[in-house]
Design a protein that fits this description.
This protein is globular. Strands 1-2-3-4-5-6-7-8 form an eight-stranded mixed β-sheet. It contains eight helices and eight strands; from the N terminus they run E-E-H-E-H-H-E-H-H-E-H-E-H-E-H-E. The chain has a single domain, classed as Alpha-Beta Barrel (TIM Barrel). It is an alpha/beta fold. Bound molecules: iron/sulfur cluster (SF4). The site of iron/sulfur cluster has 12 residues, from loops.
Length: 251
């Protein structure tokens, strides 16, 4: 029997195969429960609370065993794996170590808002050690600094995101940043502000992606019906901002 966590509740579920979530890798996505934000467009509303069904650690381990050599990476997603790491850091560390020992690369998808003092306490800097154990990081930038409250983040939570970015850049681990765009949450001026306040100061321009909003079973389904940017409009905006774009239909 293998245990990553004390009470077998680290991973809620696995998508066994994806070619789009980890650039250049064939990967599985491992979902944790719990997220500090509540984005109206969230496609995984059942994962936002920490309570609910989980896989046994043993079955997660068996999945990794069965797919080693066939898949080249795993993506820790959610929910928010940084929140999971705050609750269960030894388990996350052990899962990453097991995955590396089996030859997997490890990507971490997070919004960064949980990167608090807990992670940066010296002399044992848990955050830098955790970051150094990753092979690739996907960071969601939700909004300009003062609009995280629209995503139910605290007014101060962006300083945690900044600390996370600074530690990732210092580590040298590759990072991409993503902003999902819906007109009800972000207008064009907000996108310019994200560029001016966050992207450019950290030199992240060539690693910034705009992601088109997609309808679905969401945290707040009313946003499905609210007007937003067409693919053509979003492509124009991305061109003006000089960033990349995902989730639009190719012409
Ligand atoms: S989309 Fe928002 S609410 Fe959903 S998991 Fe990501 S950060 Fe959390």
């Amino acid at each position: 029997m293998h245990h990553f966590s004390e009470n077998d509740n680290l991973i809620a579920g696995i998508t066994p195969f994806t070619t789009i979530d980890y650039p250049g890798e064939l990967a599985a996505v491992l979902f944790v429960r719990g997220c500090p934000l509540r984005c109206r467009y969230c496609h995984n509303p059942s994962l936002l609370g920490t309570e609910g069904e989980h896989m046994s650690d043993n079955s997660v381990f068996e999945f990794l065993e069965q797919h080693k050599g066939k898949l080249s990476g795993i993506v820790l997603s959610g929910g928010d794996p940084l929140l999971a790491a705050r609750r269960q850091l030894p388990g996350i560390n052990e899962l990453i170590a097991h995955a590396h020992a089996m030859g997997y690369k490890v990507k971490f998808d997070t919004n960064g808002v949980c990167y608090t003092e807990y992670f940066s306490e010296e002399p044992y800097n848990r955050g830098k050690q955790l970051i150094a154990s990753m092979d690739y990081i996907g960071l969601d930038i939700k909004a300009p600094v003062d609009k995280y409250t629209l995503f139910q983040g605290s007014p101060q939570c962006f300083k945690n995101v900044q600390a996370f970015i600074e530690d990732v850049l210092e580590s040298g681990v590759p990072i991409e940043v993503r902003t999902t765009v819906h007109k009800s949450l972000l207008d064009e001026r907000d996108l310019v502000r994200i560029k001016e306040e966050i992207i450019d100061p950290y030199g992240l321009g060539d690693r910034w992606w705009l992601q088109q909003f997609h309808e679905g079973e969401l945290y707040d389904n009313s946003i499905n019906k609210e007007p937003t940017y067409s693919d053509i409009e979003l492509t124009r905006i991305a061109g003006e901002l000089g960033c990349r774009i995902r989730g639009v239909k190719e012409e």
